[in-house]
Amino acid sequence: MEAGWTALESENTTDAVDEYTYKTEDQLQTGSVSGYLGSYGGGGYAVSLSGTAAEMVTLFNQLENDRWIDEYTRAVIIEFSTYNAQVNYFSVVQLLVEIPKSGVYLTNSWVESVRLIKSEGTDGSIVKYYEYLYILFSILIFFKELSYYVYGRYKVIKSMKKTQNPIRIAYRLIFGHFTPWNFMDLVVGALAFSSVIAYFLRQKYTNQAMDNFNANNGNSYINLTTQLNMELAFNYCLAGAVFFTSCKMIRILKFNRRIGVLAATLDSALGSIVAFGVALVFFCMAFNSVLYATLGNKMGGYRSLIATFET
């Protein structure tokens, strides 16, 4: 397309204006964005916001005169990343303006700040030392718990009778010789190992972003959404591992009479707690599904199932 969304006079696609050429999600290095009216993929028509203030004003005036945003535009997304060297934090900013046919402008924004470079400064070597220690410990814990679980399945198979009910066989293969505390140990190992995977992926994508930044002297847009998601995944897995490890302290402190009573109560009420939890989850899903179906097109807080659950 040429300026003003007019068709090319020649068949040579190299004559197309860059702002009027469709680009894929991989070319733009962007992901999907969810708004009030729907989700928008990473592909589309893009304008690079680079240059001096006077050049930016000239560019905006030209796009306005050429009607780059017209009656067929449904969403305008502005994405940029910032870095504060004083506190060593990156911020990923997404600004969304949805333009339905009714003519109303619906705005939304997301700002996420995260520390991607953790080995800088005087304490960098100490941080890296403890990170490597955590990685080693997580890998050892994961394979220890996994081997214990596999060995338990082996013992179940060796002691299993061939005349048993198939459902009972499947139950014993999964849960035989496996207490809730063993299950918690396995969950801790899995979360720790998942956090290690997220850690290495974050380092990989961060290094790629830094290489891209140095190659272009900081004059091109670098999307840090993937790095941000990996950092959040690392934090979530680490938080889960710490939470379940703290719960295991109840078992360790069973020598105390009061703690022992609490642990015995939890063991006795485990079935009831699980049943209540399952019922609560189904009740919440049904309730939120009705809210989404009823208010999804009327209130922004219920625009999607995830937003409904968060509300």
UniProtKB/TrEMBL annotation:
Segments traversing the membrane: 132-152, 173-201, 233-253, 273-295
Source organism per UniProt: Caenorhabditis japonica
Residues in Polycystin domain copies: 5-117
Entry-linked InterPro entries: PKD1_2_channel, Polycystin, Polycystin_dom
Swiss-Prot/TrEMBL keywords: Membrane, Transmembrane, Transmembrane helix
GO cellular component terms, semicolon-separated: membrane
Family: Belongs to the polycystin family.
Domain Polycystin cation channel PKD1/PKD2 positions: 180-309
GO molecular function: calcium channel activity
PANTHER family, A to Z: LOCATION OF VULVA DEFECTIVE 1, POLYCYSTIN FAMILY MEMBER
Membrane topology: Multi-pass membrane protein
GO biological process: detection of mechanical stimulus
Full protein name: PKD_channel domain-containing protein
Source species, domain of life: Eukaryota
Subcellular location field: Membrane
Xref: Pfam families: PKD_channel, Polycystin_dom
